[in-house]
Amino acid sequence: MKITKEEIENMSYTEFVGFINQWNVLPGAHDTLTKWEVFSKLSEESKILEIACTTGFSSREIALSTNCSGKAFDVCESSVKSAIENKDKYASKIKIDYFTEDGYNFKSDDRFSHIIIGASLKFFPDPQRMLDKCISLLEENGFILASPFYIKSPIPNSLIEEFQKVFGIRPTTESYKDIMNMYKGLEIIYQENNNIIQETEEELKHYCHSTIKRACELRGINDKELYDIMYNRLYTVKDMSNKLRPYQGYVVLVLRYRSFVYPNRFVELF
Question: What is the dihedral of CA 232, 234, 237, 241, to 10 degrees?
């Protein structure tokens, strides 16, 4: 594949993720997926939808574990291309269809037993509008599977500005209660609040080298300069995320929709 360093440098964050086929994971990664599977009773009969699926990690791994079926979409074409490549290479038998779509424009006659949102709502200009749309696509007794970030203490403005330059969006700056308010009409079947431990420099380097080495193999890139450009950009992304970890937590959520309850709440919060 012929590509220049300028093309790599000019990619948006999401385009870069798709190009290098970064397994862009939700907060908690496999640990969160396992809790979702157990506490939402995901099974072969489940029909899932993943919004903002990026390169397909969550839906792919859940389908491998449970043999469920479903759909997954993202607005970024390069990310969806990598999601399809990952399915073909690592999980060819799963029954998940990946496609490009704007979440606000997505339409379906089907209803889903589980909708995976992870921490993706932050990438939508109007998160509440997207969540409301997801709820409208649920079966009765269906589940929203989320793992949003929240802040435990204020993030310094200098880090917020640095984050915006790297990712193109603002980081989550809302408190736990502010984040949970968005989901107030849904029943909390499971929740677990988590602190985030910073990664070491050695751990960051190992991850970045593993990902970029594979990206070079996938894209047929043998140029050391291009490897360095991709590695350095990914390291900048990971290092930026790492800097926020002392200020952040995340919550693993299994949220149930029942029409005779929603949008009310009849159970106390604990």
Answer: -110
